[in-house]
Amino acid sequence: MEKRKNVITFKGNPLTLLGPEIKAGMNAPDFTVLSTALEPVKLSDYQGKVRIISVVPSVDTPVCDMQTRRFNEEASELSGAVVLSVSVDLPFALAKYCAAQGIDNVKTLSDHKDLDFGLKYGFVIEELRLLARGIIVVDQKGVVRHVEYVKEVTAHPDYDKALAVAKEYL
User: Fold this and answer.
1) Annotated domain spans of the chain
2) ∠ CA 96-98-102 to the nearest 5 degrees?
3) Is the pTM of this model over 0.85?
């Protein structure tokens, strides 16, 4: 397993990411995560759509909550796109969060079982067994068009840049 040290920090402390670094221009690896109904969901289930993958450590934190809310608002304006929010939160916790917060335009998905997304996309934080924060945009043909691994886990990603790239492919 590839280990990338000192790529990101959490409150200034360096961490190790597991898995390869994904870059724009690469074919997006397919992955399987779980829906809030415990059903398997694959990236390829949304082939033909622009896919924005919002990666968060846990929806139960302020920045992750704001990131999920922001994409929930933006998703209603993105016809032809789907927003997938991936974390290692349990599917039950994601369902409860979405119901309580009115999150209905973003598909919240859990990578807790196998870390299939996190390991294939290089987002697993070895020291915490959480996913790092970031955004990936995949076009209709399955090509990665934008990747951001947020350097400081407690910081926000560049929403505007990711959304601008996604809109180029709609």
Assistant:
1) 3-168
2) 130
3) yes
